Every structure is written in structure tokens, then in C-alpha cells.
Amino acid sequence: MTVRIVIIGGGQAGGWAAKTLRDDGFDGEICVVAQEEWDFYERPPLSKASLLEASPTLPRLFSEEAQQALNLRWYRPLRAQNIDPQAKTVALSNGESLSYDQLLIATGGRARLPGDAWATHPQVYTLRHWQDAQRLKKRLAQSQTLAIIGGGWIGLEIAASARKSGIAVTLFEQQPALCMRSVSAEVSAELLALHQQQGVDVRTGCGAIELDGGDENAVIHCDGQREIFDAVVVGIGVDLNLELARDAGLKTDRGIVVDAQGRTSDPAIFAVGDVAQHACYGLCVQSWAFAQNQAVATAKAMLDTNAPGYDDVPWLWSDQYQHNIQILGIPQPNSRTVVRREEKGPIFFSLNADGTLNQLVAFNDPRTVKLAKRWMASGRDLNAEPLGDPAFSLMSLR
Ligand SMILES: Cc1cc2nc3c(=O)[nH]c(=O)nc-3n(C[C@H](O)[C@H](O)[C@H](O)COP(=O)(O)OP(=O)(O)OC[C@H]3O[C@@H](n4cnc5c(N)ncnc54)[C@H](O)[C@@H]3O)c2cc1C
Fold this sequence. Notes:
Blueprint: E1 4-8, H1 12-23, E2 29-33, H2 49-52, H3 64-69, E3 73-75, E4 80-84, E5 89-92, E6 97-99, E7 102-105, E8 109-111, H4 116-120, E9 124-125, H5 130-140, E10 145-149, H6 153-164, E11 168-173, H7 185-197, E12 201-204, E13 209-212, E14 218-222, E15 225-229, E16 231-234, E17 238-240, H8 243-247, E18 256-257, E19 269-271, E20 276-277, H9 288-303, E21 315-320, E22 323-329, E23 336-342, E24 345-351, E25 357-363, H10 366-378
Helix pairs in contact: 1-9
Bound molecules: flavin-adenine dinucleotide.
């Protein structure tokens, strides 16, 4: 009998899993249940090139031919409504039921909104899907003023893209600093300076935000002020699509709990990408690298129980203005941050008391990121090294 693997979610992680299954010789049936109508695509360009290019195209994960060669059975645009782990079936929104031998959950997340009124306001935008990017791009082309709610990575990238397009940007962040959950105070301060230099009006530590306005604009009420904007983009994070896993009785915490091989608490069900909690770090990394590499490792493990697990240090990047910013690792409380200022941009080293590196944030310096991966892997004590001195060669610590 033909073995069947069902993948729920046609995003980046689902795509890499499907490709890896075929690359590693799986010749059974692969069914992909996808809510979106598009072929697998990557989301990072949506806040960058897709907003800036004159005629952006779908940022496909694989060429059309490469995807055809995967010989997938698509169920799209359809939602997986429910998983029955006992019967090993998935119920679809068109009433069909799909049986599986192994199941992979790759459902990602959905953009969060501050409240119901925001969901129906015609000038409120979020950015998660290809259509979102097209809709936002169209509106930006007609806008002089933009409010961004949320000073995380997506908000900052949209701010950079809008400024490049000559739009006046006001960014509201309720926390006292930008990207506060993911980087040190020193990096937050650098990001603030960068955006202020580019003319963004950044309001960190702002109070509660209320919204009204009509079809043509949005009115933001905050800290006693009433301001009118042509459009408002909300970038306050995502709600992970965990409902299917929870309702199926799978163990969830911040995300779906998986082992290093991507296996959930049900041995026939695996989870990848944004919804999967990093097996070593206990959090959902929500990055391009995790969506690809953890999905590849998981697909290999679905075919071979002895396949090595995934334990990479979290890594993500962000492109803002002329800067490529790479973030490796997770900052820990009570870290000491050493700042190194070079011509190409600053580097921030967050060190534990024992001198090991818990996070490196590097502007325009992928070489040092590679080096830092090795320092982290070997647990190197960097306390005595003059990291902040630009005359000191970091490469001498190879
Ligand atoms: C605008 C934007 C910019 C980004 N920029 C960067 C960056 O610069 N660097 C970086 O490292 N990371 C970046 N990321 C993060 C990165 O893109 C994500 O981590 C990655 O897309 C996660 O992949 P995924 O497959 O887990 O989820 P997704 O790509 O979200 O795919 C999940 C898919 O599952 C579908 N789905 C959900 N529920 C169901 C269901 N019940 N039935 C059927 N289908 C379902 C969804 O519609 C979606 O198509 C960015 C993300 C966004 C949104």
C-alpha cells in the first residue's frame, strides 16, 4: 500500500519538508493542505523588495519546474479543520477527510491586531501574506503619511521601506525600546538612532492607542494627541496557528513541543517552522533559517529515525536601509554587552559572566557571525579579549 505523508501548511517550512522528503527518496504520496492558493513562497521579501520593486513577483521557494518535480497532491485553497490522531485523519474545510501515515504541521502564524475595530478598518494593514504585501504596496504608492504600530523587526523593515519611498513615518511602540524582547538595550538604542537619522518619528514608551477615521484615512489617538495618517500598518507580532495541535491533544507550550527531530508528543505527527518550539531553546524562533533548516532536519527524521536532530543556535537577519543586520543567539539577563564600532557598522557582543557569548548582533558583517557560531559551539571564554577595540583582529580568535 502507498505510504502517505500529509503536510498542513504550504509556507516555507512545509515547502522545505516536501522537497527534502523527495530529495531523500520518499516515493509515497505527499499531500499538501494549503490555505493559500500560491505555490510555496518565502516571506522575508514581503517587507522589503515586494514593497519597493516596481513589479514584484511572488517570491517563490522553488522554480515552477522544481516544484512540479516534487509530484505533490495539492489541496488548496483549503483549510485543515481538525486532526484525529487515533483515526490518523485530517478533516478539510471542503468536507473531505485525508488519512495519513505521518503528518507534518507547518501552519505558521497570523498577524495580531490590537482589537476588533482594527480588523475592519479600511486603512489598517498587516503583513503576513503575499496579498497583504500587494495591498500595502498599492496603498503606500498613494500615501504621504504612514503610522506603524509596533517597533519589532517587521515594523522597522516597513518603516525603512516606506522612508525609501519618501513617506513620512511615525512609529508607535509601547515598550520603552525597539525590538526589546530580542536584543540588548545597546542594540535597541542603535536601531532607534538609525531610524531617527532616516527621519522616522519614533515614539517609544507610548501609551494606549485608539483608532478611528473613515475610508480615506486612519486617526490615531495616543498620549492625548489626535493624528491623521493615510494608512496604518500593525506589526505587533503573530498569533501562532496552534489550534489544530491543541485540539488534537498534542503537547504545546509557547509553540508545539517537539524533540530535536521535530516529533511531537504523538510519534506519527511532526511540526516545523514558526509553530514548532526549538527543542533546545524552548521558544518559537520564527525565522527564515529555522523554517528551512529545522524543516529539512525533521523531514529527514520522518524517513530515518536515526537522522541527526536540529540544534542550531537561533539566527535571523533584517535588512533596513543600507544595513544587513544579523542576530545570532538569544540575549540572557545580566549579560555584559561589548560594542565594537567599525566603518561598515557596529557589532554587539552579549557575554555571560563566564565569558561565553549568548548573542551577537552584527551590522553588515556576516564573517563575524560565522566566527561567533564557532565561539558559541565551543563555549569559548571571551572575557579577556579586547572585542570592542576595532584595531584588534577578531579573526585572530578563529
Ligand atoms: C513580512 C515578513 C518578513 C520577514 N522577514 C524575515 C527576515 O528578514 N529574516 C528572517 O529570518 N525571517 C523573516 N521572517 C520570518 C519568516 O518568514 C518565517 O519565520 C517563515 O515564513 C515561517 O515559515 P512557516 O512555513 O513556519 O510559516 P508560514 O510561512 O507562515 O506558512 C504557513 C502556511 O500555513 C498556512 N496555514 C495555516 N493554517 C492552515 C490550515 N489550518 N490549513 C491549511 N493551511 C494553513 C498559512 O496560510 C501559510 O501559508 C519574515 C516574516 C514576515 C511575515
